[in-house]
Amino acid sequence: MIRKGLSGGSFKPLTEESIRKIHHTAMRVIEEVGFEVNSESALKLFEGAGARVDRGKQLARLPRERVMDLIETAPSEINLCGRDEKHDILLGGKRVYAGTGGTALYIYHPDTGQKQLATLNDLKRIARLVDGLDNIHLFMLPTYPSELPVEQVDVNRFFAGLDNTTKHVMGGVYTLDGVKQVIRMAEIVSGSSESLRRRPLVSMIACSISPLKMDKEYGDLLVTIAGAGIPLVCPAEPLCGATSPVTLAGNLVIQTVDSLMGVMLTQIINPGSPVIFGSVASSTDLRDLKYLAGSVEMGLLNAAGAQMAHFYKLPFYATGGMTDSKVLDSQSGYESAISGLLCALAGANFIHDAAGLMEFALTVSYEKFVIDNEILGMVMRAVEGIKVNDETLAFDLIKQVGPGGNFVTAKHTRRLMRSEHYQPSLSDRNSRQDWEAKGERLTWQRAAERVEEIMSNRNSNLPAEIRQRVLLEVAGIVD
Hints:
It is built from 18 helices and 22 strands. The chain has helices spanning 16-33, 40-48, 64-73, 120-131, 150-162, 176-190, 193-198, 216-228, 248-269, 296-312, 330-345, 366-384, 390-393, 395-401, 411-420, 432-437, 443-456, 464-473; strands at 6-7, 35-37, 52-54, 59-61, 77-80, 89-92, 95-98, 106-109, 114-117, 139-140, 169-172, 202-205, 213-214, 232-236, 239-240, 275-279, 282-285, 290-291, 316-319, 350-352, 357-358, 363-364. Strand 10 (139-140), helix 5 and strand 11 (169-172) form a beta-alpha-beta unit. The longest helix has 22 residues, at 248-269. It is globular.
């Protein structure tokens, strides 16, 4: 049973009063402190939309009334579509989906304990693998192809995704020409530019730089993407004690302002443009200023970020499911599970980085995608909660069985046992004796077998005619 798009929101780390205070403080920051805009085109757009601009410092400040007008222009729901319609998702409200993420540089191999630089072929293989993992609902391009020049990275990463999975493909972008090439490629796959806007098969990411800064390159990329009407995520990555105050509340203020910068700009450029409020907020190891991906505070921050998104009625891109562990051990499991679960129960719409990532988001592992798929199945079962109705209360059955009876042979048990209880595909529930008889395989070893099984039976390539047209009409693809 595939669970996706279920309504979360039962976990609320922020009270209603706390949400209002964070909002009020964020509006004060935008009005009184402002934010630095290093893209000239973006700065002109803010100025034309009513911002007070300090040209010497490249600062923009907006009154809160104008801020809220722009936020309210943004759609509260966004369709992200797959090549196969069964993979379509609707972001918004408190519906929960999970996917991959990151731009990892390395692939970890648990059989040797070694890691190596990720290649374009790794990205293609991961796309095929994720296509066969039902609890991963969206494919965000998770690795960087080390052998390619940056000018070829955008088009080849997105082609690797579109050609190897039928799920929606999201990714970060690096060059303006790359953005244009990816859009052209997606239009060919969709059938037309109109079809792509109606059923977006791709979405892109343009980050703000915490605290309170819009980079020139990302600002220019955002202007181009929003102008083209392609769904866009505007995440920020404030780190407690480094690029935000050390307190979680202070971090949430910075995260809110930083992401709203992008949201506002998209609506100035193209009112109604599909945009996603986003967070990669986390804590910092203050011993050496390392970014932490597996802290419980990351889960709390992103769960609270979901509440802020609900307040603004914006779709939300959260971060959870990662680990700082360097191997597939118990730390890898509990860190990935805790932050992912907190985000999901809070009603985060798309939990990115929820599968595959480890070692401070530097590395992915084929086996970890499979392990995290299992974790996400359990997480989504928790989001579903407990159904209470006449059928599940089962009074008539209890009365029929009576004291001292059992429910093993009841039709009610057979009818509901698979839907009521999560059915694991990886976890071992055998007795010790049976587990020993089957080779005493560890979790990562069972996951490795599942990887090979999926890879040997999966072909999600584009239709031959469309694939050939993409290769002929879009420059720079390495096939």
